[in-house]
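Colleagues,

For the teaching module next term, I've prepared a clean inverse folding example: a structure given as C-alpha cells, and then the sequence designed for it. I'd like students to try predicting residues themselves before seeing the answer, so please don't circulate the second half yet.
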C-alpha cells in the first residue's frame, strides 16, 4: 500500500508541475482523454513484480527522481544541434530539443499536397477537427501509469497525416535531442501518425543525448494505417547512460496495410519499448525487427503484444540482443491468435549473444492460439561466441578483439540489413562497431 501511494503521488506531482505549460487549445477528444487519464492515475494498480508485464522490470530507481517539466530545460545552441544531423541526408525533418519543437532547425519545405506534417501543439491549434478524427483510435489511454501520465499531459509531439494515395519519395526524420545538464527533465512527446488508404512513407526517429544528462523520456505514439497503406518505421535509441526511456507504440492496421518497424537500442540506463499491434481487417502485415546492446548498469526491456483478431494476417517478429559486462535485458513477446483469426501466419524469435558471465537475459516468447487453421512458430536462443569460429579467425591472423567484433556484427547483420535507408544503416553499423569494441574488451 505504501508503494502504491508513492507511485500515485509521484505521478500526480509530475502532473501538477507540468500543468502550466499545457496548450490552452484542446479539442473535445483531447480534453476527454486527459480527464480520463487523470482519473486513471488515481485508480491504476501498482507496477510491481506481481504484474506479469513488469515482473522483470523494476521502476524503483525511476520513482526516486523528481523530474521537472520541459519548460525548465536550458536552451540548446543551434551549433550543438547541427552536430547531430546526418551528412548529406535528404529528408523532411522535425527537431525537438529538450522537449521543445525547434522550427528553425526543422525542414518542412516543399511537402507535397495531401501531407500535413507539424508539431502536435500546432495541430491542436490550427486543425483540431482533423486531429479529433484520429486521436485515441489506436490506444487505450489507461494501459498503465506511464501511458496515463503521457495522456494527462499531452501537449506536443509529431503530427503526420498523409492523405489517400500519396507516396512520399523522401523520408521523414524526427530528432529528439536531449542535453539538460543538471536539470532532470520529464519529456513526453505524443505522436499521431496517420496514413490514409494506399499512402506510403518512411519515418525515422532518432533519440540522441551526447552527455550523461538525467531525464525521463516517456514517448507515446499512435499509428493508424488505412487499407493498402505502407509505413517503414525506424527508431534509433542512443541516449544518455543516465536516461530513462519508455517508448510505447500503438499500431492499428486496416486491410492489406503493411508496417515494417525496426528498433535499435544502444543507450540509456533504463529503456523499455512496447509494441502493441492490432489487426482490424484481413490481409494486413506487420514486420518487427530489433537489435539491442546492453552493458554495465543498463537495462533494456522489449515487450510485444501482437493481436491477430481477424483472418488472413501476417506478423514477423525478430529481435536480437548483445549483452556484455553486467548488462541486463528483458524480452517478453506475445502473439495472440483469436478463434476467428483463421489463416493467421505468425513467427516470433529472440536470439541473444552473451559476452560475459555477469550479463543476464530474461526472455519469454509466447504464442496463444485459439484458431485451428494457422501457421505459427516461436523460439529463443541464448549463447556465447563460438570458440571454433574465434579460433578460425585468429588462425588467419586476426586478433581476438577484432575477431569478436566480426562475429557480433555477423550476428546482428540481418537486423541491420532490414534498414532500407543507406545512411541510417551506415550510422547504425558504425555505432554497433563502437559499442562492440568496448564489449569485446570487457569480455576478454
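(Answer key — instructors only)
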Amino acid at each position: 500500500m505504501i508503494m502504491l501511494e508513492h507511485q500515485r503521488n509521484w505521478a500526480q506531482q509530475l502532473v501538477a508541475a507540468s500543468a502550466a505549460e499545457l496548450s490552452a487549445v484542446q479539442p473535445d477528444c483531447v480534453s476527454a482523454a486527459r480527464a480520463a487519464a487523470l482519473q486513471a492515475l488515481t485508480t491504476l494498480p501498482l507496477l510491481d513484480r506481481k504484474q506479469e508485464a513488469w515482473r522483470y522490470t523494476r521502476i524503483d530507481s525511476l520513482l526516486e527522481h523528481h523530474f521537472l517539466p520541459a519548460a525548465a530545460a536550458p536552451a540548446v545552441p543551434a551549433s550543438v544541434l547541427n552536430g547531430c544531423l546526418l551528412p548529406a541526408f535528404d529528408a523532411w525533418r522535425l527537431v525537438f530539443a529538450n522537449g521543445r519543437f525547434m522550427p528553425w532547425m526543422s525542414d518542412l519545405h516543399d511537402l507535397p499536397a495531401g501531407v500535413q506534417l507539424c508539431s502536435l501543439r500546432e495541430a491542436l491549434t490550427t486543425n483540431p477537427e482533423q486531429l479529433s478524427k484520429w486521436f485515441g483510435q489506436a490506444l487505450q489511454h489507461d494501459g498503465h501509469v506511464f501511458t496515463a501520465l503521457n495522456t494527462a499531459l499531452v501537449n506536443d509531439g509529431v503530427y503526420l497525416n498523409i492523405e489517400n494515395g500519396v507516396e512520399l519519395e523522401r523520408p521523414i526524420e524526427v530528432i529528439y535531442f536531449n542535453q539538460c545538464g543538471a536539470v532532470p527533465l520529464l519529456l513526453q512527446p505524443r505522436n499521431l501518425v496517420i496514413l490514409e488508404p494506399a499512402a506510403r512513407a518512411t519515418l525515422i526517429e532518432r533519440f540522441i543525448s551526447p552527455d550523461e544528462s538525467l531525464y525521463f523520456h516517456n514517448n507515446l505514439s499512435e499509428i493508424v494505417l488505412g487499407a493498402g497503406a505502407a509505413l517503414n518505421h525506424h527508431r534509433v535509441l542512443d541516449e544518455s547512460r543516465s536516461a530513462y526511456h519508455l517508448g510505447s507504440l500503438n499500431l492499428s492496421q486496416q486491410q492489406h496495410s503493411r508496417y515494417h518497424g525496426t528498433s535499435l537500442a544502444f543507450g540509456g540506463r533504463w529503456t523499455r519499448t512496447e509494441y502493441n499491434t492490432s489487426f482490424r481487417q484481413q490481409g494486413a502485415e506487420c514486420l518487427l525487427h530489433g537489435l539491442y546492446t546492453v552493458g554495465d548498469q543498463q537495462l533494456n526491456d522489449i515487450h510485444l503484444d501482437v493481436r491477430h483478431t481477424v483472418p488472413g494476417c501476417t506478423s514477423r517478429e525478430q529481435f536480437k540482443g548483445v549483452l556484455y559486462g553486467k548488462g541486463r535485458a528483458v524480452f517478453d513477446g506475445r502473439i495472440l491468435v483469436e478463434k476467428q483469426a483463421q489463416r493467421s501466419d505468425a513467427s516470433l524469435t529472440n536470439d541473444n549473444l552473451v559476452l560475459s558471465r555477469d550479463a543476464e537475459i530474461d526472455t519469454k516468447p509466447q504464442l496463444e492460439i485459439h484458431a485451428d487453421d494457422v501457421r505459427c512458430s516461436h523460439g529463443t536462443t541464448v549463447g556465447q561466441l563460438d570458440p571454433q569460429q574465434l579460433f578460425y579467425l585468429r588462425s588467419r591472423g586476426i586478433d581476438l578483439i577484432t575477431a569478436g567484433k566480426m562475429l557480433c556484427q555477423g550476428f546482428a547483420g540481418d537486423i541491420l540489413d532490414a534498414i532500407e535507408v543507406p545512411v541510417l544503416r551506415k550510422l547504425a553499423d558504425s555505432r554497433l562497431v563502437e559499442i562492440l569494441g568496448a564489449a569485446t574488451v570487457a569480455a576478454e
